[in-house]
């Protein structure tokens, strides 16, 4: 089996499994993995949406609005960590995925900008 | 739990829309009386924060719960099946026999 570049040859031979941990603690269930990741992305996109509406109604204009976006993402990550019972490694392969998953992703940023612009226009310009 | 989350989410979205409408009316009256728009009044701001918080908390419960991803965390009972692979049955009505009230004593125990 060809190893991916950067993978040490021992890990390539065993497929990335370690010998010291039992198999059940290393193998992942793809259905649950997808379920958790879907909840994560949906919550973050919705948090971006809410941040856009908040920034639009308050009347923030200019680059300060992206502060609202970052605060909303931090809040969403905190709430998701609470939902995971404080054990994110039980539900995600790495706990950094919970925090940094969609922060600079195109979908969330554009959703935020869309709802920010639309709400600002609806509330203050029309 | 998910139904309660959806209800809270709906209520939060309605409150958000109403707050946006109130902000429009506030800005309109400011414009009519030729005053400067300094910022939202405190009650409106509090209402907005409450609506956003309700939406966030509602959405947290509405999407469903996290499932543990490691196979060791989801214990499954080992199922003993007969070795006759020609006659393997994976889904049969016998699994439902135990649910019928009058059959509960008669059903064969734990054949899956």
UniProtKB/TrEMBL annotation, chain A:
Origin organism lineage: Eukaryota, Viridiplantae, Chlorophyta, core chlorophytes, Trebouxiophyceae
Protein name per the record: ER membrane protein complex subunit 6
Membrane topology: Multi-pass membrane protein
Top-rank taxon, per record: Eukaryota
Keywords recorded for this protein, A-Z: Endoplasmic reticulum, Membrane, Transmembrane, Transmembrane helix
Family according to the record: Belongs to the EMC6 family.
InterPro entries in alphabetical order: Emc6, EMC6-like
Keyword Secreted attached: no
UniProtKB/TrEMBL annotation, chain B:
Listed GO CC annotations: early endosome; EMC complex; Golgi apparatus; plasma membrane
Keywords: Membrane, Transmembrane, Transmembrane helix
UniProt subcellular location: Membrane
Alphabetized GO MF terms: inorganic cation transmembrane transporter activity
Entry's transmembrane regions: 46-66
Signal peptide start and end residues: none
Name this polypeptide is given: Membrane magnesium transporter
């Amino acid at each position: 089996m060809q190893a991916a570049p950067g993978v040490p040859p021992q890990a390539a031979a065993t497929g990335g499994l370690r010998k010291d941990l039992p198999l059940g603690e290393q193998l992942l269930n793809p259905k649950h993995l997808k379920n958790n990741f879907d909840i994560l992305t949906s919550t973050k996109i919705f948090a971006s949406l809410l941040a856009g509406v908040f920034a639009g109604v308050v009347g923030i204009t200019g680059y300060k609005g992206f502060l609202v976006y970052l605060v909303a993402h931090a809040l969403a990550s905190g709430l998701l960590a609470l939902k995971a019972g404080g054990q994110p490694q039980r539900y995600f392969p790495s706990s950094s995925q919970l925090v940094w998953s969609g922060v600079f992703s195109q979908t969330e940023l554009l959703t935020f900008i869309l709802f920010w612009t639309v709400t600002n226009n609806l509330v203050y310009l029309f | 739990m998910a139904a309660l989350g959806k209800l809270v989410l709906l209520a939060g979205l309605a409150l958000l829309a109403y707050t946006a409408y109130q902000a429009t009316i506030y800005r309109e009256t400011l414009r009519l009386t030729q005053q400067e728009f300094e910022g939202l009044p405190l009650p409106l701001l509090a209402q907005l924060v409450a609506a956003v918080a309700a939406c966030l908390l509602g959405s947290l419960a509405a999407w469903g719960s996290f499932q543990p991803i490691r196979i060791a965390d989801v214990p499954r009972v080992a199922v003993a099946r007969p070795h006759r692979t020609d006659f393997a049955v994976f889904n049969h009505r016998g699994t439902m026999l135990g649910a019928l009230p009058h059959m509960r004593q008669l059903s064969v125990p734990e054949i899956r």
